Amino acid sequence: MQLFTLVPNPRITLVLRDIRGYNLYAVNNAQLGVDLSPDAEGVLRTRISFIADLQAGDYSLTLRLDNAVSDSLCELLDKQVGAISFRVVTPQKRFDAVVNLHGSFEVLSTS
After folding, report:
1. Which pLDDT does position 1 carry in this prediction?
2. Residue ranges in the chain whose pLDDT is less than 70
3. What strands lie across the sheet with 23-28, from one edge to the other?
4. How many other C-beta atoms are found inside a 10 Å radius of the C-beta of residue 49?
5. What is the CA radius of gyration of the chain?
6. C-alpha dihedral over 80, 84, 45, 13, to 10 degrees?
7. What's the rounded Cα separation, in Å, for the pair 22 and 16?
8. Helix %, strand %, coil % of the chain (to 5)
9. What's the confidence (pLDDT) of residue 99?
10. Cβ neighbours, 10 Å, residue 18
């Protein structure tokens, strides 16, 4: 028998890190305006997705579960550093940094 503790304000965060451990991207349900409510049995299933347009290299994902007491205060409940590791292999360099934020240039009228 497993005992579960209700988390009043669950916040799940996904962090993408490069091989040096630098945070390249992070997102959580609160930033995206998604309220997390477990089902009647206390279970919650989620899916987090993002477009991993990255340079060739090694990366990892860290997951954390917090109880978001307020916008600025949270209680860390669990953290899985390097929960998933992966390698991006690309045939050629497509941009000049680690991540591609799909920036654009626009020529504005001078008149």
Report:
1. 57
2. 1-3, 91, 111
3. 23-28, 10-18, 57-68, 74-88
4. 7
5. 18
6. 50
7. 8
8. 0, 40, 60
9. 81
10. 16
Q: What three-state secondary structure class fits 107?
A: coil
Q: In terms of Cα–Cα distance, which of 52, 68, 67, 66 is closest to 17?
A: 52
CB atoms within 10 A of CB 52: 14
| 62: amino acid identity, one letter | T
Other C-beta atoms closer than 10 Å to the C-beta of 72 total: 6
Amino acid at 76: L
DSSP lists the bridge partners of residue 61 as: 16, 84
The DSSP secondary-structure symbol of 56 reads S
Burial of 11 from C-beta contacts in 10 A (0-12 / 13-18 / 19+): buried
CB neighbour burial string for 53-71, b if at least 16 within 10 angstroms, e if fewer: ebbeeebbbbbbbbbbeee
